[in-house]
Write a structure and sequence with these properties.
The chain is of the alpha+beta class. It contains 16 helices and eleven strands. A hairpin with a 2-residue loop joins strand 1 and strand 2. The longest helix has 18 residues. The two termini are about 40 Å apart.
Length: about 375
């Protein structure tokens, strides 16, 4: 009880310490110990401590289910699903929630479950199913009477109506919401999604997540379409070359050849006198970007949830080195976009504000 009280007061480290101490006083198969493990895991998730052993919580959930504590068992599954969602493991998150369909959940747990389902669908760029999940969450949250939960649902609903990306098409650029992106991705338009580093046309998807040079080159060609992109523009945009020499031009030809092979299901690239032209197999061409690009944008996408993040947790989610993340955090702080709280090992980061654009498109989504 003291551990839970400390958590409600915001003393999260002390709360976890008390909960772990309490857990040791109970038998390994006891309901009381399983509840302590669950409370500790939820605090860890809120604290963005992603290193806690998820297997311990899954085992606690099984004990709670076997001993008839259905609601806390369901709560454990939802906490595990939230962790998987945060890490971009969408299939694992969905699997955690699938077992809850046959259970009679409290309104609060029903709302929490549907919030996670909405998050999964948003990562998958399925706006319509995300709205359905949020509608169920809204109903359940109001039944629960918990103001904080109702506010969380309302905020998620508002984010779906805001611009989620910038659409570059036919020489113009305009904001586009998730509903528009969903319609775009189900059309025959060849979409260069610079937020997720993938190319899409209907059911065909080509990932360039591990090929940043090729993705930059592809976007350069797509932004110039239907015209050709000049070699000078591509060299500057892709390689940052201000004064191109023969070595730069040779490298450009090599990268174009590599990209041409990867694009084969969707488009080809033809050489012109002054550069290269993208030639889609069918349909139109569009580019999706976010006002922020690169590693800074990915970090801001995570900090936008309002929680306090350590640099090591950010690095874990994004698959980057801690040192690289620390450099980005320093730059974002100097730019006035984020703030730090605490010192040394307790140093945490959060966004100051995220005006205009929610960052859901940039979050990791590993199926």
């Amino acid at each position: 009880m003291r551990g839970i009280a400390m958590a409600q007061l915001g003393e999260l480290p002390r709360a976890r310490e008390l909960l772990r101490s309490a857990a040791k006083k109970f038998g390994p198969e006891s309901v009381a110990r399983a509840r302590c493990v669950l409370a500790d895991a939820e605090i860890a998730l809120v604290s963005r401590d992603l290193m806690w052993p998820v297997a311990s919580l899954e085992a606690a959930g099984r004990i709670l289910l076997q001993r008839g504590d259905i609601l806390n068992a369901a709560h454990a599954s939802i906490v595990v699903a939230r962790r998987h969602l945060l890490l971009g493991h969408l299939e694992l998150a969905a699997a955690c929630l699938a077992d809850l369909d046959t259970l009679s959940l409290s309104p609060a747990l029903s709302a929490s479950k549907d919030l996670v389902l909405a998050g999964i669908e948003i990562r998958r760029l399925h706006a319509s199913t995300a709205r359905s999940a949020l509608a169920r969450a809204e109903y359940a949250a109001h039944r629960s009477g918990i103001a904080a939960l109702m506010g969380e649902v309302a905020e998620a609903q508002r984010s779906l109506d805001e611009p989620a990306a910038l659409l570059h098409h036919a020489g113009s650029t305009q904001p586009i919401a998730l509903d528009g992106i969903e319609r775009l991705l189900t059309s025959n338009v060849l979409v260069f999604d610079a937020s997720r580093n993938v190319l899409r046309s209907g059911e065909t998807i080509v990932s360039l997540a591990s090929r940043p040079i090729l993705m930059s080159l592809a976007v350069g060609l797509a932004e110039a379409w239907p015209r050709a992109a000049t070699r000078e523009v591509l060299l500057s945009q892709v390689f940052g070359a201000r004064h191109a020499d023969e070595s730069h031009r040779t490298r450009l030809r090599v990268e174009v050849t590599r990209l041409r092979k990867l694009l084969a299901p969707l488009a080809t690239i033809s050489a012109t006198k002054k550069g290269f032209r993208l030639v889609p197999m069918a349909g139109d061409v569009a580019v999706l970007t976010h006002p922020m690009r690169g590693q800074d944008a990915l970090i801001m996408a995570l900090l936008a949830d309002g929680e306090l993040w350590s640099s090591s947790a950010l690095a874990m989610v994004l698959g980057l080195s801690t040192r690289s993340v620390q450099r980005s955090l320093q730059g974002l702080q100097e730019a006035g976009k984020i703030q730090s709280i605490g010192r040394a090992r307790s140093l945490r980061w959060t966004a100051l504000a995220v005006p205009g654009f929610p960052m859901s498109l940039l979050l990791p989504g590993v199926a």
